[in-house]
Amino acid sequence: QVQLVESGGGLVQAGGSLRLSCAASGSGFSITTMGWGRQAPGKQRELVATITSGGSTNYLDSVKGRLTISRDNAKNTVYLQMNSLQPDDTAVYYCASFRAGKSYWGQGTQVTVSS
């Protein structure tokens, strides 16, 4: 099993910043694609950012320029730097690991952006 533990969520005002962290257990982190997804109340979960083992990134169009995904392979940790936050960013954010055609998800951390 892959264990993923998110942290860093909280309440922030519109226009503010937050950085989420995800600590991953197990071997093979450095060769695993990682990502962040989110789920707002009444909505489907959506993938907001991914980063490959080589550092290539992809983002949901609505978060481009505001959210940045990064990783520290020495710490088995992936980050999501969130800037210029908007109320629509309010959601539970989940860390994800993708390997062998499967996805693994953490428990999530709540991000609330007030107007």
Which features characterize this protein?
115 residues; mainly beta; 4-stranded antiparallel sheet
Chart the SSEs and their pairings:
Layout: E1 4-7, E2 10-13, E3 18-24, E4 33-39, E5 46-51, E6 57-59, E7 67-72, E8 77-82, E9 91-99, E10 102-105, E11 109-114
Parallel strand pairs: 2-11
Antiparallel strand pairs: 1-3, 3-8, 4-5, 4-9, 5-6, 7-8, 9-10, 9-11
- Number of helix segments? 0
**Main sheet specs:** 7 strands, mixed
Distance between the termini: 39 Å
How many runs of DSSP E, i.e. beta strands? 11
Order of helices and strands: EEEEEEEEEEE
Cα-atom Rg, whole angstroms? 13 Å
The fraction of residues in strands falls at over 45%
Low-confidence stretches: none
Overall geometry: globular
Structural class, please? mainly beta
**Residue share in helices?**
under 10%
**What is the mean pLDDT?**
96
Task: Summarize this entry quickly.
The chain is mostly beta strands and 115 residues long. It contains no helices and eleven strands.
What can you see in these coordinates?
This protein is mostly beta strands. The chain has strands at residues 4-7, 10-13, 18-24, 33-39, 46-51, 57-59, 67-72, 77-82, 91-99, 102-105, 109-114. The radius of gyration is 13 Å and the shape is globular.
